[in-house]
Amino acid sequence: MAKNEKNKKIDKDNYTAKDIYVLKGLEPVRKRPGMYIGSTGVKGLHHLIWECVDNSLDEAMAGYCQNIRVRLLKGNRVEASDDGRGIPLDRHPQTGKSALETVMTTLHAGAKFGSKAYQVAGGLHGVGVSVVCALSKYLKAEICRDGAKHSQEYSKGKVKTKLQKEGKCQGRGTTIIFEPDEEIFADASFDVKRILHHLRQQAYLTPGVKISIRDERTSPAFSYNFYFQGGIKAYIKYLIGQSEARHDNIFYVKGEKEGVVVECALQYAQDIEPLEQSFANNIYTEEGGYHLTGFRTALTRVLNDYARKNNYIKDKEENFTGNDVRSGLISVISVKLKEPQFEGQTKARLGNTEAKSAVEQVLGEGLTDFLERNPQDARAIIENSLLSAKARRAAKAARNTVLRKGILSGLTLPGKLADCTTRNPEDSELYIVEGDSAGGSCKMARDRRFQAILPLKGKILNVERARLDKILTSQEIRSLVIALGTAISQDFDLEKLRYHRIILMSDADVDGAHIRTLLLTLFYRYFRPIIEKGYLYIAQPPLYQIKAGKKIEYAYTEGDKEEIIDALRKQQLSNFAVQRYKGLGEMNPDQLWETTMSPENRILLRVNVEDAAQADHVFDTLMGKEVFPRKKFIQVHAKKVKNLDI
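Structure (tokenized):
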């Protein structure tokens, strides 16, 4: 027996050439889809549409396409079409197949590798449409060229039909119809709002091109058209929306340096949070890159030079920092270059170093001229930076006060905090609760080994409307900062976080929802890494207690309540009482533990930020100074409100 086991072990450890697998065609894409589209979640699914649209935009940037259309069809299919030149159909000299089949079924095949067909292109990797083909259970390509329409069908990256002529057609163009493969995507339903947002961006970046979307999954069908002549200057107006601009004229510059075409537009608004959108060859680079670095460097340098030249900053005074000059900044940076180097197929960050120097030169020259020609705008911009610098210095003093208090207190944390006994952050939880009454109930209900309780008095300051120096005058916020242990703003350090589960627990009424929103705003603006790491949660206390004799059940939603009542009636238990919980303080400690704090029974909702830019816009709308956008938001969404306390 021992000998056989030994032989088996030798066979298992034997590593030979037969163990080396060679993936052919598009098999690597199906084997590791995340390498090509980022993920198999919502973002990756929609990336399939972006790849199709990118090819159409490449045609538009080359001057051959004026109309791009996206249709969401029933049966979970998508059609993307354009009136460009159409993918070639002739025989490819290397593969022996048609150029269409080569593009659809071969990685790194396209006109963007050394060809003169495109001067600039977004889909540099050449895997775009082939990846869509690989990850679709059905794909049909329709090509109109030379007065004839040809088509070919594919499935999971493999050819299903021969290239065939379908008849006559006018003009030229490419149409791709695809249906995502459910084997790859657990949820293959497309979000029309996400698509609208992306296509709107592309329409601003490609002025003079009409981009339309039609959602035929609903009745009646929904359609929307985008067409902008103003380019990124018009995009700035859209991004500012109803916010109040600090100066009248939008700055815009376009130029070319070192073979890189640079476009920049900016305007300052009353909002504190900056909004920077950067693009390379029309691809949104959500993680920035060298073009954004060059923009920030030039902006800081030019504004400091102008401020010193015009005596806004005296000789011995410190310069503006990058954060000073970006406070309230709304900006769009777009570069076009022949050989972009993106980090990853999802093109999140631009890696071309020449983009940095090109943007620095174009922006530096253009912004210097703008400030000289528009002294009133220049004054408003510089005064905005001066105000930010003043607030930064005040905030630094306030932060130091908070930090000193935390250091001098040693292990003595805020008096309201009932800390847990464990010192291991991975095992520790912090419940942030509303008021002393709920705090008292939670302290009695908790497991003190790993659960800490921090009650906050009433509604905290709305941080969306205040600068950091004012924020840190709030005793409640200072207590929270010290309890978390991370410090705040520039001193924030996630490694020092004392709890890896931070749970917001408020009453199930309008005031409780408001308090929760204020806390979410605080965490999003000043502790966002905590959210991004997955450490922030919202507790779900029950809405109702339903008691029938000695039997007690809890309902967390209106649906739960109806199901429980129906079940009791079927059991002929008609004599039951329903209690609506308005506040956590109404529960006994044992009930609070059983329903909301026990890891075995509780319901926690993890807070995540899938689209930071959209989340930023929502917080600005709902919590910012401007009343009109908030009023408009309420009017639009009022009919969707459920469970509103009256």
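The mean pLDDT is 84. The chain has three domains: 27-226, 231-390, 411-541+606-640.
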